[in-house]
Amino acid sequence: MALDALLQPVVLFFLLGALAAFARSDLAIPEAVAKGISLYLMMSIGLRGGGEVAETGFTHDMLLAGGAGLALSFLLPLPAFWLLRTAGKLDRTNAAAVAAHYGSVSVVTFATGSEILRHAGMAPAGFMVAVLAVMETPAIITGLLLARAQGKDSLAPRGGLLHETFLNGSVILLLGSFLIGLVAGKGGMAPIAPVFDVPFRGMLCIFLLDMGLIAARRLMDRRALTVRTAALALLLPLLNGTLGVVLGVELGLDAGSSAALGILAGSASYIAVPAVMRLALPAADPGLYLGMSLAVTFPFNLTIGIGYYGWVAAHVWPLIRG
Amino acid sequence: MTTTTHRRRIEVLADEPLIPVIIRLAAEAGIIHYTLLPTLGGAGAHGRWRDDQLSGATAKVMFLAVTGPEHADAFIDRLAPLLESHHLMLMSSDVEVVRSRKFD
């Protein structure tokens, strides 16, 4: 499955973008287009997830997965923080800011992972979209607590921080689209499927081409990254992702949903969390947390992580359990 | 001949999430008129940067205000302690303006 994942057009477009950036090509996707596609992807993911839950109804598995996602997002920053402080030699503020990124999630990693799992016959349950939305923000709270709330030098009003944390655009769009899909159901979704369902993979390809360019260019400007932090950016998704998969299987989720929980746990935010951290912990280095999450962890998950989480969910952990 | 008046031009280059903080500090110093300018990219002490609307965390915005010297000094005093910790760039220059009442 790992090799199969590598040969998917979405991943190949990501690699094309990365190669173009490494070759210093002038290839570029206009920022407004990339921003527009990211909004489209979140709407499409939310709508499709809500539509599927409308079909299956609210299940025991959905509640379990939601609880597991919430717990993971709150707790994953804790071991990450310890590793970043000890092995990564980061100061408290930087370690807390980076740890928050690794407790939160990457929507695009989830979208790509879902497509790859679907292609492999392991489609995750529709309610995993709700789990994705649930996992966006709790890690931010843990990160801020780890940094001893707001840094002394932060001038961000507390109300502004709460607003940014709980009402950031991606959470609103994901949850809102999920609810619209839930209300509309499969019947209501059919007329808008030509816009939000059929072109999804193609749009994801364009977006990942841009992500390849961004990730590779950020890697080339890697002043803030050290060998230690780069190694942790590879280790943290493996540890978190494996924990997510094992938790999913142990809770009785199907292999696809367990793999999706692993993808969520193993991914790192680069949209919602950086904006909040820049405001709340201005002394933390954005080059460090964006370099780790976007330039190292995101490409790793796309090329190796997703295939690995799927393999553990489908073969390894069920075998260990006997 | 058109009459011109001396004013101070203040420019602050900051990451987009910090702009509300800059605006609040400017208002506290009596500067309520300003312009925000988008940027494409550049290079500084922390390396190269580009407009990045994806996360928005490191997309840089230029805050521009033209005001009287008292307001300008008050704003600079408020901002100076944050320049290092918040990675801000602050520029101040003398300008001549027409219709000075627009730049109080």
TrEMBL record, chain A:
What superkingdom heads the lineage? Bacteria
* UniProt keyword list: Membrane, Transmembrane, Transmembrane helix
Q: Does the keyword Secreted apply?
A: no
For this protein, the record's Pfam families field holds: Sbt_1 (PF05982)
Q: Sorted alphabetically, which InterPro entries does this protein's record hold?
A: Sbt_1
Membrane-traversing stretches: 62-83, 95-113, 125-146, 166-185, 200-220, 232-253, 259-281, 288-311
UniProt xrefs under PANTHER family: SLR1512 PROTEIN (PTHR40400)
Q: What is this protein called?
A: Sodium-dependent bicarbonate transport family permease
Automatic annotation (TrEMBL), chain B:
SUPFAM superfamilies, per the entry:
GlnB-like (SSF54913)
Gene Ontology BP annotations: regulation of nitrogen utilization
User: Which organism does this sequence originate in?
Assistant: Sandarakinorhabdus cyanobacteriorum
Q: What is this protein called?
A: Nitrogen regulatory protein P-II
Q: Which domain of life is it from?
A: Bacteria
Taxonomic lineage of this organism? Bacteria, Pseudomonadati, Pseudomonadota, Alphaproteobacteria, Sphingomonadales
User: Which InterPro entries does the record cross-reference, listed alphabetically?
Assistant: N-reg_PII, N-reg_PII-like_a/b, N-reg_PII/ATP_PRibTrfase_C
Q: Which GO terms describe its molecular function?
A: enzyme regulator activity
